[in-house]
Design brief:
Layout (H helix, E strand, L loop, with lengths): L8 E6 L2 E6 L10 H16 L5 E6 L10 H8 L11 H10 L4 E4 L4 E2 L1 H8 L2 E5 L3 E3 L10 H10 L2 H10 L3 E2 H6 L5 E3 L4 H13 L3 H34 L2 H12 L8
Parallel strand pairs: 2-3, 3-4, 4-6, 5-7, 6-9
Antiparallel strand pairs: 1-2, 7-8
Protein name: Enoyl-CoA hydratase
GO molecular function: catalytic activity
Family: Belongs to the enoyl-CoA hydratase/isomerase family.
Length: 261
């Protein structure tokens, strides 16, 4: 287990690509306050570095990202101190979406809930065929509110409705068909596929690359701030509710929640 002083996000720059690696495998790279803070800082560093052409976001351990840190959420609702300086989910997703340099997500395993928000916020996403996905919020008594903003920009309406409403698990091929990920590659080809995409970005003129990303984002940017603000209120209300408390208890106790039939 990593010591508390070790970084939860590791950064490395090589041939114009800043690789940001989520390195908190003990909790499946959950988006704790500290991990969000470090990821936002390392992303800002990459954006400010003139030698960086693109950003690669990946993870260590058995999962890409499990979403919100439920233990931290439970502690907060029990009255534990909260790091108010940490960026919220909306701020983190916006930082990825608004970065003037392309962000490529290379999944190393499953993504859940808020972790899928990171996948959707990235410009390009490559997943191994063995990766799985689930919007598990409804099964623990909350709503996939904040992540709905980036995810709805990627996924086709029918699949979005199915997976948001059921919380069921789906595979990388289904994620690609739904528009959530760009490519579902055989596990042993993920690195090669991602490298090919990064090589393509390296061939692009930096100013043209930034302007093209801005062009692609223009259609959704006008209303995104308002959407995140509205969804933040929905998220807060549900996370503070009785169903969310029961959902967390059932999750930690490894039992069905009281509403399960």
């Amino acid at each position: 287990m990593a010591e508390a002083t070790e970084p939860l996000v590791r950064a490395r720059v090589q041939r114009g690509v800043a690789t940001l690696t989520l390195d908190s495998p003990r909790n499946r790279n959950a988006l704790s306050a500290r991990l969000r803070t470090e990821l936002a800082a390392r992303l800002a560093d990459a954006v400010a570095d003139d030698d960086v052409r693109a950003v690669l976001l990946t993870g260590t351990g058995p999962a890409f990202c499990a979403g919100a840190d439920l233990k931290e959420v439970a502690a907060e609702h029990a009255g534990a101190p909260v790091d108010r300086s940490a960026p919220g989910m909306a701020e983190l997703f916006s930082a990825v979406m608004d970065a003037p340099k392309p962000v490529v997500a290379k999944l190393n395993g499953p993504a859940r809930a808020g972790g899928i928000g990171l996948v959707a916020a990235a410009d390009i996403a490559v997943a191994p065929a063995s990766a799985t996905f689930a919007f598990s919020e409804v099964r623990i008594g909350v709503v996939p509110a904040l992540i709905s903003v980036p995810v709805a920009l990627r996924m086709h309406d029918r699949q979005l409705a199915r997976y948001f409403l059921t919380g069921e698990t789906f595979d990388a091929a289904a994620a690609a068909a739904a528009g959530l990920v760009t490519v579902a590659a055989p596990d042993d080809e993920v690195d090669a596929v991602a490298d090919g995409i990064l090589d393509g970005l390296r061939q692009a003129a930096p100013a043209a690359l930034a302007r093209t990303k801005a062009l692609l984002a223009a259609a959704d940017h006008r209303d995104r701030a308002a959407a995140f603000a509205e969804m933040a209120e929905v998220s807060r209300a549900f996370f503070a509710g009785a169903d969310a408390a029961e959902g967390r208890a059932a999750f930690f106790e490894k039992r069905p929640p009281r509403w399960a039939l």
